[in-house]
Known about the structure:
This protein is mostly beta strands. The protein contains one helix and five strands; from the N terminus they run βββαββ.
Amino acid sequence: MATHIDAFIDDSSDSSGEILTAKITRTEKHGAIGVPVFFSAEELERQGIDPNEFDRIAVRVEDGFILFDPTESEVSE
């Protein structure tokens, strides 16, 4: 079961927190290929993912939403 980020961020004020930027990765052969994105443990928890339970999650974009899917691999101890 996927979880998606469903939030409106009001950019008319600075109350939404720190704004981070990421550089778009490009290659000569392929042009723009993507951008790295980092989610904190707290942000993952807000989306229903326990970062202490998994060492990997699947992240995909579908219909404009970022979706998180827990994977079968559990944290190795």
